[in-house]
Structures are given as structure tokens and as C-alpha cells.
Amino acid sequence: MDINVNELKERIDAGNAPIMIDVRNPHEWDTQHLAGVQLISLHELPSKLEELADFKDKEVVMICRSGGRSGNATKFLTDNGFTSVRNMVGGMLAWKAYIDPSFDVS
Fold first, then answer.
1. Where in the sequence is the domain holding 15, given as residue range(s)?
2. Looking at residue 15, which CATH number applies to its domain?
């Protein structure tokens, strides 16, 4: 299941933000990231399954630069028993295009 940047922004603004995990690499994260988002690079995700177990039945939104890596992360978590994982369509590039043009997606 997907979520678009407008829906996520509305949820954040309403104080109803889901759990958000950014699967970009640390240098991308260091450039700029959304507040309240946890960084777990895509290649680290398999080793973090136990750590993420408390989120198995909670809504989790996966985020990356363009939506590809987060789509892979969404599938991986779903395949491992997570019941409500969503991919942020278009990633941070969409966030920059539709929500915050000043966002640095270097």
C-alpha cells in the first residue's frame, strides 16, 4: 500500500504521524531529513528486523529519495510479517516538488 506526500504531510500536521523510516544512506540523511523519521539504510534492514518487531502491527511509512528503495523495503517488511507498511510514493523528490521546494535532496 502506498501513501502520497500530501497525505503524509496532512497526518504529520494533524499530530497523527505514522512511524516513519528513511532507508536512504547516511550521507543522504545528513543532507536533510524529515523530523521524527528514523534512519535505517536499506542494506541494514534485514539485521534490524528484531529491533523493529514492536512495529509489526503498526502503520509504518518507508521513505527514500525517489520511492524505489522504500518500495523494496515495504515489500521486505511485508514479506516478514509486517501488516501495515506503506511506501511514500515519489520519495523525498516528491516531498520537494509538492510540499517543500527548499528541501535539499542532494
1. 2-98
2. 3.40.250.10
Using an 8 Å Cβ cutoff, are 61 and 20 in contact?
A: yes
Distance CA 97, CA 15 (A): 23
Max CA pair span of the chain:
37
Dump pLDDT digits (tens) for 43-95. Answer: 999 999 999 999 999 999 999 999 999 999 999 999 999 999 999 999 999 99
Q: Which three cell numbers stand for residue 30?
A: 545528513
Buried b or exposed e, range 49-74, using 16+ CB within 10 angstroms: eeebeebeeebbbbbbbebebbbbbb
Total of domains in the chain: 1
User: Does residue 104 lie within any of the structural domains?
Assistant: no
Nearest Cα residue to 19 out of 82, 100, 94: 82
* Residue 105 included in any domain: no
Enzyme catalytic residues: 64
